[in-house]
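RECORD TYPE: inverse folding
INPUT: structure tokens
STRUCTURE:
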């Protein structure tokens, strides 16, 4: 249950959502990409109604909005019977956004970007947890999202594997990707949004931007829930 949420996110901002178990952190980001419905309040995406009062404002508009949002799950959620390359190609092909050769070229470029080009033809079970999570990031990037959501992206990893995932996320931050991250990793907490305890009410919010970083121009979305 989420109550008292009032959140506005600016372009290029990285927000960490932190708090105890059961405080609604995952629920919050799942509402942003319509995996959870709203009973009240609204979410505005790039100045347009996206979700409101538990109802989809417009199905076509909602689907278009969802495609602008990539999500990386805690448990990877890769297809075990598909190769790494196939996992990354699947979404653009499913949505008929790219022809097969173009989708393959893009997927290979994304795997190279996350340092896994040499593993393109392996299966997820042949990879470490950190490698699987980097595949999941590449897969989310395949639809060229404007916003990335991460749900505890390192919590299922052994400590020695956390760093390789953090490097990819920090690289995205340097490139100006807007991100919301449910995390307990200190390396991913430049900005905090804190739910309050088990009732899910917001406890407080703070923003930090390193000195010299330009002020983002315009916010991609805002969420309110009285």
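DESIGNED SEQUENCE:
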């Amino acid at each position: 249950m989420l109550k008292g949420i009032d959140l506005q996110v600016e372009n290029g901002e990285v927000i960490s959502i932190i708090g105890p178990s059961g405080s609604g952190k995952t629920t919050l980001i799942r509402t942003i990409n319509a995996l959870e419905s709203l009973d009240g309040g609204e979410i505005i995406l790039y100045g347009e109604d996206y979700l409101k009062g538990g109802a989809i404002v417009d199905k076509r508009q909602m689907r278009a909005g969802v495609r602008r949002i990539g999500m990386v799950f805690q448990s990877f959620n890769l297809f075990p019977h598909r190769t790494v390359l196939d996992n990354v190609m699947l979404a653009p092909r499913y949505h008929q956004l790219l022809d097969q050769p173009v989708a393959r070229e893009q997927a290979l470029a994304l795997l190279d970007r996350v340092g896994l080009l040499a593993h393109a033809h392996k299966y997820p079970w042949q990879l470490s947890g950190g490698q699987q999570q980097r595949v999941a990031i590449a897969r989310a990037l395949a639809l060229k999202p404007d916003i990335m959501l991460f749900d505890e992206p390192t919590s299922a990893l052994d400590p020695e594997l956390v760093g390789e995932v953090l490097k990819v996320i920090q690289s995205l931050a340097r490139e100006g990707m807007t991100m919301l991250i449910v995390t307990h990793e200190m390396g991913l907490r430049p900005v905090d949004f804190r739910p309050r305890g088990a009732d899910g009410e917001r406890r407080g919010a703070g923003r930090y931007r390193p000195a010299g970083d330009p002020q983002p121009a315009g916010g991609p979305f805002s969420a309110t829930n009285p």
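NOTES: DSSP finds six helices and eleven strands in the chain.
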